[in-house]
Amino acid sequence: GYSQQQQRMSPEDRAKSTTEWMTKELKLDDKTSKKVEEINLKYAKKTQEKMMEARDAGVDRSQMRDMMGKVNDEKNKALKPVLGDEKYEKYLKLFEERRQNRQAGQRGG
To answer: What percent of the chain lies above the pLDDT cut of 70?
Structure first.
């Protein structure tokens, strides 16, 4: 599925695809897009490190989800001033929809 393909991607690739998605959906200009990509990359790397640590530590899935959630919150805090309130709100909505679609896809098996 989609998430496995994402796990195989490097943080660079993942940041790029997230940035492209955001740029398209939020109609970001080049300057904003570049800043967004920097943030996405930073946190994609952070996420990967955390996942490695969690795997080594034998952390269970729900704990791992909490960790990812924390990283994601940090990322969102970093994105907010770059996107501005209006686009940030839209981003959160889109992100949530995307996540639900992903989960729905997984359930459909």
So the answer is: 90
